[in-house]
Amino acid sequence: MALLTWVRRPFARRLIVAGSLVVAASVLAMAAGGIWVTAQSQGHVYAVSTVPAAPVALVLGTEVYDDGTPSPFLEARLELARQLFTAGKVKAILVSGDHRVWEYNEPGAMFAWLVAHGVPSRSIALDHAGFDTYDSCARAKEVFGVTSLTVVTQSYHIDRAVAVCRALGLNANGVGDDSVRAPHWNYWYNTAARERPAAVKALLDVASGRDPVFLGPHETSVDEAVAS
């Protein structure tokens, strides 16, 4: 029994030390991610009325329901993009989201909503491989040839989205939505809580310079939408 106690104690100490190091590393990483996001995005987040004009609004995708309608969070983003277009703040809208499987189509749902709410179809371009924020920003630049844009998402996400786009070389500003915070506060705060680890991932993505999950050939649909 004494021997077992002697064996277990050093192991327990090593386990505690290892756990403490992991926790400390995680805290430092999240602090670094938060500092990086703030530094990159500072001075580049606006309201619809004050955001500088840009050729394109990049709308980042999120949940679409089984019947093909956008969730309230996605609908709020689309409404901001519609306002930007109507106000002449952008000439075209690039909707970027997940269409990894045929049955689930964020860009298609976004396109349908915008057209139903008065945005001409010719002024909308679709990115079917915007699987995350990094991919959407990288593909806007590398696939669609965008150099300047206004990115649109919820306000808890907008700093990270702007930071990623700017770190990839885009002249990016952002507009964030707050309208769904109160009616969907539980989902809002649960999702917002993920921003700290998401900032770490974003920093690692940018530092690695990884290609998007799907890069693909150059597409002219944004140029055509802007020219329309």
UniProtKB/TrEMBL annotation:
Q: Where is coiled-coil annotated? A: none
Q: Which Pfam families match?
A: DUF218
One GO CC annotation, please? plasma membrane
Q: Which domain of life is it from?
A: Bacteria
Q: Could you tell me which residue ranges the DUF218 domain spans? A: 56-172
Q: Write down the InterPro entries for this protein, in alphabetical order.
A: Cell_Envelope_Assoc, DUF218
Q: What is this protein called?
A: DUF218 domain-containing protein
- Taxonomic source organism: Winogradskya consettensis
